[in-house]
């Protein structure tokens, strides 16, 4: 197995020489001929800022956007950093990654599964070589690893995730990387000082939820009932069970909640709502998306009270992975039927950006929207 050299080129992060234009949004656009483009939308115009290759995952801070991609011509994984203010690529770092290591990604496109800090980038991966029938097992017996890349050099360090970590998702919890198991129970934190993963939630910690779910994996009409987590800064960790119940698992300081748990029904068994972190009137909120025969039901739930703060309907043609919550009572999304990026508020729906039909067909990720846009 060969190792790649570490650095393509690194440009010092630009000082704040310019200000971002008001009313702009950052979009991730898949291209027909393969690869992805990062575009900046200002008014009705689109400007391509970077073409990082085939993007597996992305993340952001207040200052930068980061993209983990594979560049076929170079046969390398590259981490691309874009400064939001200068609107320029400020670093492109070769990752010292074995050719059989693969970042976790979605079937439907790039996933918000990258955490960025001043010194490091974090993601999750698995190892699967040509001819293998299954991913390699790590030192903990699991199939996935937690990865840390040093931005200055591209050095990769791997920490084995446990066997109970299935379908891992990585989130930025107030600057701390947290990993949780989609369709599982576990939550883990990376302790940078001790250089190890710490278990915050295991199956035994949520025995009450596991017992309540029982054999609820399959719901009515043969639909598979799934479970998911949403991690809310300043509030804690919340899990939607296979029964469609939203329950708090961790407090804001990542300690276990006291029993009995607060519970609210947000979906029917087998309905499989999508969960996302959003904001409502400036405060963190839990977004719940339910699909019906002719539309999507969207609501913001207050994590402190479990009250529904806002409920609206979206067209069936709204692409769920594109949903982006603004800080006021608004949600933005790609509508494939109209080839447009739309914003829905209590006052109605407006078009923010028109796209070509080809672009809309391949899906769009809405990465960031300047507050002046709304």
SS field, number of helical segments: 2
CATH architecture annotation name: 7 Propeller
Q: Evaluate the radius of gyration.
A: 20 Å
**CATH level-1 class:** Mainly Beta
Distance between the termini: 50 Å
Biggest sheet, in brief?
A: 9 strands, mixed
The residue fraction in helices comes out at under 10%
- The structure class reads mainly beta
The CATH H-level superfamily is Prolyl oligopeptidase, N-terminal domain
The overall average pLDDT, rounded, is 86
CATH topology: Methylamine Dehydrogenase, Chain H
Give the low-pLDDT segments.
Answer: 1-22, 218-222
Shape: globular
Extended strand count: 30
Residues in β-strands, percent:
over 45%
**Structural domain tally:** 1
Overall description:
This protein is mainly beta and 374 residues long. It has one domain: Prolyl oligopeptidase, N-terminal domain (Methylamine Dehydrogenase, Chain H), CATH 2.130.10. The protein has two helices and 30 strands. It has helices spanning 207-213, 357-361, and strands at 9-10, 24-30, 36-42, 45-60, 64-71, 76-83, 88-94, 101-103, 111-112, 115-116, 120-127, 145-150, 156-160, 168-173, 176-181, 187-191, 196-201, 228-232, 236-240, 245-250, 263-265, 274-280, 283-291, 295-301, 308-315, 324-325, 331-335, 340-345, 348-354, 365-369. The strands form six sheets. Strands 1, 2, 3, 4, 5, 6, 7, 9 and 30 form a nine-stranded mixed beta sheet that branches. β5 (64-71) and β6 (76-83) form a beta hairpin. The radius of gyration is 20 Å and the shape is globular.
């Amino acid at each position: 197995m060969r190792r790649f050299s570490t650095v393509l080129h690194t440009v010092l992060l630009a000082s704040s020489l310019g200000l971002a234009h008001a009313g702009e949004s950052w979009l991730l656009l898949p291209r027909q001929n393969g690869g992805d483009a990062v575009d900046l939308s200002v008014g009705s115009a689109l400007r391509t800022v970077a073409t990082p290759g085939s993007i597996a995952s992305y993340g952001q801070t207040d200052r930068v956007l980061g993209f983990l991609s594979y560049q076929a011509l170079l046969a390398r994984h590259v981490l691309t950093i874009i400064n939001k203010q200068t609107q320029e690529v400020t670093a492109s770092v070769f990752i010292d990654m074995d050719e059989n290591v693969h970042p976790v990604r979605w079937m439907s496109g790039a996933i918000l599964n990258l955490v960025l800090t001043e010194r490091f980038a974090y993601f999750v991966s698995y190892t699967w070589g040509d001819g293998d029938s299954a991913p390699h097992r790590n030192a903990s017996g699991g199939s996935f690893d937690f990865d840390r890349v040093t931005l200055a050099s591209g050095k990769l360090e791997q920490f084995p995730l446990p066997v109970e970590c299935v379908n891992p998702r990585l989130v930025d919890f107030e600057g701390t990387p947290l990993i949780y198991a989609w369709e599982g129970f576990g939550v883990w934190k990376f302790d940078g000082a001790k250089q190890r993963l710490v278990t915050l939630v295991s199956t035994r910690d949520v025995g009450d939820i596991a017992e309540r779910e029982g054999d609820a994996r399959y719901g009515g009409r043969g639909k598979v009932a799934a479970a998911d987590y949403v991690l809310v800064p300043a509030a804690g960790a919340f899990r939607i069970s296979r029964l469609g119940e939203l329950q708090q698992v961790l407090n804001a300081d990542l300690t276990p909640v006291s029993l009995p748990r607060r519970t609210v029904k947000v979906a029917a068994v087998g309905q499989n709502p999508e969960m996302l972190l959003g904001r409502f009137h400036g405060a963190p909120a839990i977004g719940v998306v339910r699909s019906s025969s002719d539309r999507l039901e969207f609501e913001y739930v207050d994590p402190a009270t479990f009250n529904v703060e806002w409920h609206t309907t979206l067209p069936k043609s709204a692409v769920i992975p594109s949903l982006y919550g603004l800080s006021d009572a608004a949600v933005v999304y790609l509508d494939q039927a109209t080839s447009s990026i739309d914003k829905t508020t209590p006052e109605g729906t407006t078009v923010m950006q028109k796209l070509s039909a080809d672009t809309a067909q391949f899906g769009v990720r809405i990465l960031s929207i300047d507050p002046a846009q709304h």
